[in-house]
Structure formats: structure tokens, C-alpha cells
Design a protein that fits this description.
With 161 residues, this protein is an all-alpha fold. Helices cover 72% and strands 0% of the residues.
Length: 161
């Protein structure tokens, strides 16, 4: 009987450990697969309700952050450029979203550069138009002066005696 009582605790311990090992593992958290950059581009012009509904599960994704940035900046290229530059320096975006942000930043920078060039050209055109108008006015004054000089001075032909 003594040998049986000595062997019983290790056997029970082995059975107990085996039962623990057979327990199913705790379920893992579901893996969230974020939409790609194409979904961000497609969602830019969607109505607000559709964006909220489509991106409701993906608010933790970098693409959603980029989408919010693009929609908030809207048509203001200066604000959009500042936000995209801040996103670039942050460096926390996914590679695809970072590439899209770089592409959009280059596009906005080019758009800003072309807008500045267009503004300069319009200013030059206005200045040239003003100068042309001034020269036309001077030319008209010279024509009137020439006509005045060609008129005979003195009494007209009907008043001669």
C-alpha cells in the first residue's frame, strides 16, 4: 500500500497536466486587413455617409487616416501639401499609403508650382496690356497733334478778302 500512495501523486499530476494541455487555445484576435490605396482613391469623392459606412471597421488603418486627410484638405492645395508633408515626416503609414502620400505630395507641389507660374504670367500679361494701352493712348495723342498741325493757320478760305 505504501508504494501505491507514493506513485499516486505523480500519476495524478501527470493526468492533470495532460488535461490542461488538451484545453483548446484561447481564440486569437481577428486580423484586420486594411483596404489598399486604391480604396482610398476611390473613396475621396464619395458622400460622407458612404465613407462612414465603408470605412467603419477600418478606422485604425493608415488608409483611413490618409483618406480623412485628403477629404479634410479638400480643394486647398496649400493645406493639403502641409498635411501630406506632416504625414511623410510621421513615417507611421503603411508602405503603400506612404507611396500614395508621396505621389500626391509631388502632384500637389507641381500644382502649386504651376499655379505660381500662372499667376506670374498673368501679372506680366496685365502689365504688358497696361503698357500697350498707354502706348496706344500716346499714339492717338500724336495723331491728333499731327492733324492739328496740318490744318491751315489763320482765316478759313471763305473769309479771305
Amino acid at each position: 500500500m505504501i508504494s501505491f500512495t507514493r506513485r499516486l501523486p505523480p500519476v495524478l499530476l501527470a493526468l492533470l497536466c495532460g488535461a490542461c494541455a488538451m484545453r483548446p487555445p484561447a481564440p486569437a484576435a481577428p486580423v484586420l486587413v486594411c483596404p489598399g490605396s486604391d480604396a482610398v482613391l476611390l473613396s475621396i469623392d464619395m458622400p460622407d455617409d458612404a465613407v462612414r459606412q465603408r470605412w467603419q471597421r477600418y478606422q485604425a488603418c493608415d488608409g483611413y487616416r490618409l483618406l480623412k486627410l485628403l477629404r479634410a484638405a479638400g480643394r486647398d492645395p496649400v493645406r493639403l501639401q502641409a498635411e501630406l508633408e506632416r504625414l511623410q515626416t510621421d513615417g507611421a503609414a503603411a508602405p503603400a499609403d506612404a507611396a500614395l502620400a508621396r505621389l500626391l505630395l509631388r502632384q500637389v507641389q507641381t500644382q502649386n508650382r504651376l499655379q505660381e507660374q500662372n499667376d506670374r504670367l498673368q501679372q506680366q500679361w496685365r502689365e504688358q496690356q497696361k503698357r500697350a494701352d498707354e502706348l496706344a493712348a500716346k499714339l492717338e495723342a500724336l495723331r491728333r497733334l499731327e492733324l492739328d498741325l496740318q490744318r491751315p493757320a489763320g482765316p478759313s478760305g471763305g473769309n479771305r478778302k
